[in-house]
Amino acid sequence: MTTHVHAGKVARPEDRTNIAKLVSDYFVLSPDITKAEERVTFGTSGHRGNASKCSFNECHILAICQAVAEHRKEMKYTGPIFIGKDTHALSEPAFVNAISVLIGNNIPVVIQEDQGYTPTPVISRMIINHNRQHDTLADGLIITPSHNPPSDGGIKYNPPHGGPAEGDITKKIENRANDIIANNLEDVVDVAFESAMQSSLLTKQNFIKQYVEQLSEVVDMEAIAKSGVSFGVDPLGGSGIDYWPEISKQYDIELTIVNPVVDASFAFMPLDKDGKIRMDCSSAYAMAGLIAMKDDFDIAVGNDPDFDRHGIVTRTGGLMNPNHYLAVAIHYLMTNREWAADCKIGKTLVSSSLIDRVAKHIDRPLAEVPVGFKWFVDGLNDGSYAFGGEESAGASFLAKDGSCWTTDKDGFVMALLAAEIFAKTGKDPYQYYLSLAQELGEPCYGRVEAVANLAQKKVLTGLSPDDVTATTLAGETILQKLSHAPGNNAAIGGLKVVTESGWFAARPSGTEDIYKIYAESFVDEKHLAVIISEAQDIVSNVFTQAGL
């Protein structure tokens, strides 16, 4: 995929979404669920879509929330449901619909006291706290399409463990929601929003205060404050905008918010690689503004709209590769926390093999799982996983005492950990990475995307090792062809091919009409380019054999 001529430059008027029309389309347009692209479809992070394309409309949210209400009744959850939302334009009307349906179904609902924004990790933390302290089980909904463009909306369900719902749960909700839509929403039970907001079932809490006061349980906030580390923050217009000032005040940290703007059009954003507005804090194009300020701070961080991802910028290295920071975070935590020796390091199979080398070097068990944070939930919840991280810059880890912090990705703690590392070691995370790479080998990592229709994505999802006839990759013998993850034997929804000094993985996107190839070489960039080229040939041959 070629780089757009305006990538890294601030969005032009013609790049921006017509927010008024988008919100109007949310209410006016209705999906035709005989079309696959307009049905409720839960990917690795819930249902996402675009109101103007009839894939995220009022019908979808009413049906999804009714399906969630019925699921709660079936499971006998009698505690509250915590609701969070981000700053995307479609999050506001979806928030209204969600509360109306849940109150209509006599479910206790808890929201931020000023109806403000609430990040994903905060909802996870609220669920965990409630279920530790009460006999009734709580769960949550987060209304967000994560880092997706301003035109998109999203909603995801977190059951009582606090993390992303498992596939069997999301499939049940998905199927029931589509049935409800097909039946013209006759099964939806809701009340007027004004009535819902006055209901005794609705509780408003100060999520910000609760979450911020507990951060010292997971990050050494005292060390950060004492060090005087200068900390720059770009919330990228996201839901954590009101949290950072409280963090600074609570812990006396020298913290500067470089961009305090919240704008549903995200007009302040530099364009991503493909010329779209996308709040991807792991993209050097989307993060161009903060990267330009790298010399102003010891550590600078950015987060996506629901704050489940992190981007780390240092004076010495600019924006860190997410894989490099994961390896740094893992090495630092596993050698600076007094956690049980047998707790595992969790990584997705498209994350860097540098993590494998770190785990071997410090003699800690490693669990490699498919893409999706849901695979880390149980381990983080019971403390058998010390860390769970994804190559897409999302991770969480245990509290200092070894208890569960969150079971969803937490961009706050990963950002603050960068400051702790600097405070405790005198090295910024990039300098720390260079030390690791010198000792364990320096990886070259790449990801490319290509257009793929639904039929091609289906073929790629169902690939088996036997579908790949190649015996070598970039001049090396293929050692493994994986369709299931070594850590839990779960299907990876694609294929991973491994050699002595490199690998690639191919899998379809759950939210866009593309497939992705992830690749890594411990030789050099030239070797990486060959791996990617041959990987693309392998995928193309698979499509050809399938007649696509």
Structure description:
The chain is globular. The chain folds into three domains: 17-205, Alpha-D-Glucose-1,6-Bisphosphate, subunit A, domain 3 (Alpha-D-Glucose-1,6-Bisphosphate, Chain A, domain 3, 3-Layer(aba) Sandwich), CATH 3.40.120.10; 211-440, Alpha-D-Glucose-1,6-Bisphosphate, subunit A, domain 3 (Alpha-D-Glucose-1,6-Bisphosphate, Chain A, domain 3, 3-Layer(aba) Sandwich); 444-545, Alpha-D-phosphohexomutase, C-terminal domain (TATA-Binding Protein), CATH 3.30.310. 53% of the residues are buried. It has 17 helices and 23 strands. It is an alpha/beta fold.
Q: Write down the CATH topology of the largest domain.
A: Alpha-D-Glucose-1,6-Bisphosphate, Chain A, domain 3
- Number of distinct beta strands: 23
Name of the level-1 CATH class of the largest domain: Alpha Beta
Radius of gyration: 22 Å
Q: In percent, how helical is the residue content?
A: 25-40%
Helical run tally: 17
How can the largest sheet be summarized?
Answer: 7 strands, mixed
Structural class: alpha/beta
Low-confidence stretches: none
**Mean pLDDT figure:** 95
